[in-house]
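Subject: two folds for Thursday's group meeting

Dear M.,

Sorry for the delay on this. The cluster queue was jammed most of the week, so I only got both jobs back this morning. I'm pasting them in the order they finished. Each block is the input sequence followed by the predicted structure tokens. Could you check whether the formatting survives your parser before we put anything on slides? The first protein is the one we discussed after the seminar.
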Amino acid sequence: MSMSLRGKSGGFIAFVGIAALVGGGLGWVTSAALSLERDQLEAQAQAQTNDRLRLAMWRLDSLISPLLAKEDSRPFSHFKSLFAPPLAINRVGVACEPGSVLEPSPLLSVDLPEWMLLHFQTDGRACWESPQVLTPASSKRFKTLDTPPALVNVTEDRRRLLSQLREELQVSSLLGAVHRHGEQHSIVDTGLVLMTNESNPTMPQSTQSPNFDSEYANRAAQQAQLRSSSKKLQQSTFPTDEVGQVPSPIGDNSFNSLQRNPQVVPVNVTQSSMVPLWIEGKDQADRLIFARYVQIGNQELCQGIVLDWPKLQAILAAEVKDLFPGASFQPMKEDVPAHPERTMTALPIELEPEPTQGAMSIGWTPLRVGLVMSWCAALLALLAVGMGGWSLIDLSERRIRFVSAVTHELRTPLTTLRLYLDMLSGGMVKEEGQKEEYLHTLNDEADRLNRLVGNVLDFSRLERQRPRLAMTRINLNELLAQVTAMWAGRCKGAGKELVQENRAGDDVAILTDVQIAQQILGNLIDNACKYSHGSADHRIWLRASCGKRNTVLIDVEDRGPGIPLGERRAIFRPFRRGRENEAAAGGVGLGLSLAQRWAQLLGGSLTLDSVGADCGACFRLTLPIVAHSIIRQ
């Protein structure tokens, strides 16, 4: 394996690669799953919209179709205020002479929907008339009858509307539109009311178009069947074996006109089914008209109904408000609807559903919950792998550093011990002063070796288990005195002076494990002796003071070179020492790590305190104190 891939940097690169593969694969799966879910939800939403559209269109057609079918089956003679019935019998049972009996049009008083504004008929000479718009003479004669008919539908609004039609609409364009939409469904007969048994759908046939909606075709067929049934019902009320006998097809509806032309001649009548049309006016908006072509003899007529488009819009919107609250309706002027699924068959009107309000709110679906759990599991697994790998690498490096440090630290005292013991045992040293110096050196090296082995054993015990503490109360002065007595000789041998200061007071006591507290302070003093060896100020301070929240602060301060800012955290890690002082001072780098862990076991802490410009290093041990009243007891 390449050296660049070893250690923590190599492990980090490998971990990033593994995390990228896992994250990329899981991200791709998540994206694909969410896209599939979004498509499914959109398909479900579209299916629900289509179902609501289908229901809405059936409602609208069912609301309008029966009324239009009734008007489509209305006889052509009803479009005159007076017409001659095909058969009339007097009181003695004798048939009246054709044309001698006249009947008022039912359109004068019949109950009509509010959106049917006016029934009219016109011919190629642009003569417009309506059974609901009477001449002054006809109106006067109706009122003089013994039993005058109810003229409910004769209103001034209809008179004004008929005048507007004369000005706005061209008869040629109206007849052309009726021919274009209704010529395939024309009916020829010889009766007053002409109809056949054939099915006559009112909408253009477009079954050859690949875009034609089957639902739209079904609704159109149902409407055609409804109109055919209505015509059959109307046909049964009139004889079809008689030739239609009518007065003058169009012109004056007055009684005087009929009295001047009492002669009635039989004529052939041809008419088509009524079709809904959008007719463009001259000045105003397009008008919605329900019209048909009628031929009486040689005269061509157009009979129709003017529909109120604004009222129709309101009625239709109210009908589907529960399905589409914000729906609107637009005219459909094409022969083949662009959107048959939302186009009415009864009228050329297209439903416009409310616009989609932003993105669809999906919420926490089972798929999304599963994906979140998968991501959490993957992240936890990566975290566990990363932490485990980092721990293994760190453990491996610590073992390497431990072996290297222990091997180096053991070799020096052992070499010295072996050399001096060989010299002493071989009788090579004759002078007593030199022997005493060698023995003193052997004692120092043995002590150094003992501290090294003791630190290693203590660290091993802390790694395996938590040690049992022997917590006892001890006066702070007593603890400082014990530490000073134990380490004054070591400081003197290293050329240092241990200075003790107690600023906390003589009656302050602490509850701690005395042996461990002494080991902590001993490690700090030993480090001060080693790392401040070449400093001009040979003093080492052991200083105590009161801290916050019932704590006591014990500082070990020297005047050495100090600790660089970038290494102030690393020195508390196992087998770590300052890089600049690593070669100058011995040890394996366990002293501060052990001291910090011991301080935490005692309920305190060990930190590197901020130091001034003339100060090297100051380590602060914080320990809890015991209340004065308890000590006095």
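Second protein, same layout:
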Amino acid sequence: MIIRSPYPDVGVPEISLPGFVLARADQRGAAPAVIDAPTGRTLSYRELNDQVRRVAAGLRARGVAKGDVLALCSPNGPEFVVTYYAAASAGAAITTVNPVVTSSEMAAQLTAAGARWLVTTPEVFRDKGRQAAASAGVQESFVFGTSEGATPFASLAGAAAGPLPGLSPDDVVLLPFSSGTSGLPKGVMLTHRQLVASLCQTMVPHQVRAGDVVAGVLPMFHIFGMQVTMNATLRAGGTLVTIPRFSLDTFLGVLEAYRVTRAELVPPIVLALARHPAVDDYDLSSLRVISSGAAPLGPDLARACAGRLGCRVKQGYGMTELGGASHLAPDAGRDDPESIGPAVPGVECRIVDTITGADAAPGQRGELLVRTSAVMLGYLNNPQATAATIDADGWLHTGDIVIADEQGWFRVVDRAKELIKYKGYQVAPATLENFLLSHPSVADCAVIASPHPEAGEIPTAFVVLRPGCTADGLLDWVAERVAPYEKIRRLHVTNQIPKSASGKILRRVLREQERADASRTLTGARS
């Protein structure tokens, strides 16, 4: 049974992503578009549009051609925003890179994406970017400032605005990397049309407006912060306050100082707003709507936060492969904090039995399948993974288990896919398992998600040790080789990893084993 959005379909204009988002920038003139929270530095809409045009022209002058891939590795800030729209305007596809990844992880993404250009901060370039760019064969690197071996980004902004290439809505503009429903990270090919369609759909229930001040605290290299925060805010004419890194006191100070009206958050931040005593020291009365995503939010926590702050707290759901959100609770009307809301306009859903693939009966749980014009083209150079995710009828298999009520509002109740959601970040078990198996002490291993009250889930490893070996130092060894959010937080030593006849790890058995055997000795436990 197909469950359709309760909203009427929306038209999707034939236009590029930067053309759509910044369509009214010159008309908005001196209105503030982007504010850098740490310094108060402000770009008006007119200044933002002018800088985008100049940097786009500067990139073209340096050799950036239509179809090139440009890697953008930066925390949130005005430069991120300018680079994003400038690269898209110049005809490049942007692969966004998490600044905290290791040098080898960055090199792997740059290589897989075929990146010819890198834009980053001096710190990232010095610590890992130079080595990663050299390894991946990047042609030229630009930094926001100065760093030996890189071109100052300011030299691009100094270029005179010139003619830019014609862009087709069907050109690939974004190439983020996602682990999908399981496995190792893969390049997600998203076109201008798909991102514009997702924005048109999102902005019906998610009613950001001109005059709204939106906290840009979630990383804009991630599809949630990119689409629902950055692109939606600037399309609507709101003010985006960029926060490069999260600390509770800094975040609370930004909410108060800039009279923030809307914020997209992840559950750990909602938890802090609901319970931390420091919240009482700030005037947060301007805050009207909090949207939580990237991981499930408990209804009691949502109600506690809403009650304390006097604002609406709602949930949404989406995936990188969906170009943004597929479900969003509305800003007004029915208030159900346990639900991710109904499907946004233009989205069709099915709920299917995970074993038979047949449609589940109304009210029964099953895997969520989504079909929409915003679905990705596929995974870069990986037709097998694409076919495993999008079936012949265009249904994207999300790997999430849901229930829908009679009004078409959905609840996420479980996850069939293997991804771990640590504080909203995606952690692929396969990545950690590969590292563990490369250690001389480890004979076999498996990594699962364990519930955690603050992080949501933490990576937990089960390892089989080689004869005569111990697990001493194993957690630290892995931590040195992965990003901070990917660290293994808990380690069990076991005699055998349960597997199916085909060799697939039976993670469900491990989860049940962990719950049932609470007395098992933990080699390490960290939050």
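Two things I noticed about the second structure. The chain has a mean pLDDT of 93. The first strand starts at residue 3 and ends at 4.

Cheers,
T.
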